Amino acid sequence: MDAAVSPLPDDIEVLKALVRLSTQRADAAEQRATSAEAELANARARESATEALISHYKLQIAKLRREQYGPSAERTRRLLAQMEFELEDLEADAAEDDLAAETAATKATNVTAFERKRPVRKPFPDHLPRDRVVVPAPCSCPACGGMRLSKLGEDVTETLEVIPRTWKVIQTVREKFSCRDCEKITQPPAPFHVVPRGWAGPSFLAMLLFEKYGQHQPLNRQAERFTREGVPLSVSTLADQVGAASFALMPIFRLIEAYVFAAERVHGDDTTVPVMAKGKTDTGRLWDYVRDDRPFGGADPPAVVFYYSRDRRGEHPQAHLASWSGILQADAYAAISSCTLPTASLVSSWRQDALLTRAGSSSNLLTSRALRARRAAANGLAPSIRLRWRRCRSWTPCSTLSAVSTARHQRSGLPHVRS
After folding, report:
1. Which pLDDT tens digit goes with each residue over 111-133?
2. 10-65: pLDDT as tens digits
3. Residue 11 to residues 3, 22, 37: CA-CA distances in angstroms?
4. Are 366 and 381 in contact (CB under 8 A)?
5. Which pTM value belongs to this model?
6. pLDDT tens string 252-281
7. Structural domain boundaries of the chain?
8. pLDDT of residue 105
9. Lowest mean pLDDT among 52-66, 123-137, 217-231, 385-399
């Protein structure tokens, strides 16, 4: 039987040369693989940055269109919010891919990392406290070992940090004493509680209400977060505190309500609120009434009062304004125009964005933005001076504008009032 012939030579020098050649080929293949990985990471980072930039431009265009054509459209506002959510995810993906491309480029010698154009970050607010941490300087020169060092300056790097909230239990101790002479027992009075016989402090109640109504965090999510932080509280317990705090805040609401409706002129409007219902989402309403006479030269501070309802029926504003008398300035929507307000005068405000842009066939008509800009300059003047100023500066032909305005108010069923 013939012995197997080895494909490798028996010469040691030849074997060393083969090993060196194999090592060089392996290094070259590894380098090519590293370069290909870096190029792929750069391509992904470039694609993510492009998608984020396109989404950013789309959002800016949508905001400009909303500002020009439909600033009060609720559907457009929800679409803008959805676009902002998508842009948030794209920006996060772009930042992650950018760092991945930078890491891959450090391993490759012939590939330059892709650099994404980042937005300019605003400086941190001045009111934030600064903790100055000075890195110890060397006592001698690291180059020559000399001891004669003089300070030339310093580089300051600011890092934003947050201190997580901490929970604590405050024990209020009221000691009892008995009199040895008359044998009566005395004790200091109990401290004030926002909620009678309540266990929650004012800071906790403020956080609970702000998270629920300001940040739109339902109580079940807050309870889950509290449990993860080591403070288990049930939803029913938190709901009791919300109801008690709402009752405690009711006198403040009544004062704001009385102040708003003490004004002679009130601006009224409503906005939609998504409300969770059984198996679906209903549309509730927030009715807001604003007192603000600053554009008319008034010196009183502005204020607003809100009312909530599950629908948009006209009985709600009628109940809100039942005991009020004055001038109500509102848009021509059916919930107000269908109301009978015996003690209030209803004035329909011009929807300038729809009125002037739709009637834009006349070359002499001002655009809504230009007209608002001219009239905004008269804010704060006396009513008589403001009226003369607006009539002189708003050079829109009165006959054309009056005809369009009268036609729109006749369709809405509201009285037409010249401004």
Report:
1. 666 666 666 678 888 899 999 99
2. 777 777 777 777 887 777 777 777 777 777 777 777 777 777 777 776 777 777 66
3. 19, 17, 39
4. no
5. 0.60
6. 999 999 999 999 889 988 888 888 777 788
7. 13-107, 201-254, 261-349, 350-419
8. 72
9. 385-399
